[in-house]
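Weekly puzzle thread! Below is a chain. First person to post its structure in token form gets bragging rights.
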Amino acid sequence: MRAAWLGGLFFVLSLLLQVFWIRIQRRMSLTQAQKSYGVGIDVEIKAATPSMGGVVFLVLGSLALLMDRSLDSLILWSLPLAGGAIGLLDDGLKFFSHSSEGFRSLGKLRVQLIVCALWTGALFLDGRLGFWPGLPSYWWLTIPLAFLGSAGMLNAVNITDGLDGLAGGCTLISLGVVPLLVPVSAFNAETVSVLFFMVAGFMFFNLRPARTFMGDTGAHFLGGALAALCLVNGRILALLPVGFLFGIETLSSAIQIFTIRKLNRRVFLMAPLHHHFQRKGWDETEVTTRFWLVQAVGAVLLTLALLSLNGPAGAF
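Winning reply:
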């Protein structure tokens, strides 16, 4: 019952705060310069759209932490809040420099790695790291994998966030399978409910044509939240279904960079993968809905595969 009313509360708060924040962003012209090497579609529209909607995630995430000041809550919310703060710095630098480039990539990566290393260390000291129930967990393997998984998710959601509603919709799908992947507990139920309805409120304004974008602030926050839900519950393998499409998008960018630098050729018309299909002539909504479908199919199939390893993890 508490999970239900918390979900309703955070949905209403998300809607109201986004309306208020969108108005402030428009008055302050908090928009983002478009990349000169971007896909070149709807440039003027997107350039005029408020681009820091993820600030509301930071506010609501902080509220959720204040409402439940337990150790579980502190450990879980610390990663998305720290990730969102890194994204906020990046968004702020882009705005004040009137550029599409904010925090230098290497500098941002270093900060991300420090945050994820400290957070992973805290999980290890608290005895929370594990692959999956019934599988052996060796510290020399779980620590680096949890570290890479948390840092990877921070960036993967950000890479995926390139079309109206794409990253937010995929996040809702991921949150939809989390109840099957983590243990039954009031804390898990309430946290997933808060996150789901927080994102649902944002999606009301982010579906095409978007009235606001989540920006790096929101993408890093959501990446941290998805990673935290899996890792705090000792289920590194849960990152596979939860981050399915995010991983594909990241892999496409990695392949593109490698082939350009080492082979002097392109595999995709443009990376990440969603831009490749835009360049092929697909409408933005067409790409988004098909990618949602891919995320749903991949997340469900991988969830079923994991559940078969040791039986159901339980549902809320």
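Puzzle host: Confirmed. Bonus trivia for everyone else. Residues 2-28 form the longest helix (27 residues).
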